[in-house]
Each structure stands twice: as structure tokens, then as C-alpha cells.
Amino acid sequence: VQLQASGGGLVQAGGSMRLSCVASGRTFRSYTVGWFRQAPGKERDFVAGIRYNGHTIIEESVKGRFTISRDNAKTTVYLQMNNLGPEDTAVYYCAADASVILSNVRNQAAYGYWGQGTLVTVSS
Predict the structure, then answer these.
(1) Could you point out which of 28, 68, 78, 84 has its C-alpha 20 to 30 Å from the C-alpha of 114?
(2) pLDDT in tens, 58-81
């Protein structure tokens, strides 16, 4: 599976942005997909994940502002980000793997496939 993340850019605080993660491969519908982000000088952290059955897991710090969804026909997972703040500035990565179970969705090491990252910059 190859992943291509896109949709990043510069946005003002309070604005919205939608990231896309397009996957190659016919078995995409069986994969769990996660979004992670790495802010400058910080470790990469979990943001949101969506399992093969549509079940979503959202990190508490972005709950209510971010949503994750998938379109299996387009082999794409979306991260809709609303009410963005400067603290959301980071490189956002998508990751996928068919073997991720519910208890591992937040665990980066559980994902075998990663996209290249897309930079989101939120200005205050």
C-alpha cells in the first residue's frame, strides 16, 4: 500500500482545512488508517483513526474539532479540521495497516505504511 497525504497549507486561526490520504491497493477497505502529527520540536502524536468498519477514534485534544472519515470507493481517508489554532501547526502524516486492532489504533508502531506528510500551518 502506498499513501499520499495532501491538503495542507496555511490557514488563519479559527479556519478549517481538510486533509486527504489517498491509498493505492485494492484491499484498502480492510485497512485501519490513522492520522498523526508532529509539531516542531515535538514527537509525533496520534490525532485520529478509522477502522475498516468505519469506527472512529479521536484524540481528546481535538475531539469536537476534528473528524475522520473514509471513502472506500475512492480509497481515501479524510481528516476534517475545524476551528484550527496555532497549536495545530504540524506536519500531518497518514498511516495504514490491515493488522491494527482497536487497542492499537493510537500506536504508531502498529502501522506498516506511511505517507510522506503534509504541513499545516495555522497563523494567529
Answers:
(1) 84
(2) 999 999 999 999 999 999 999 999
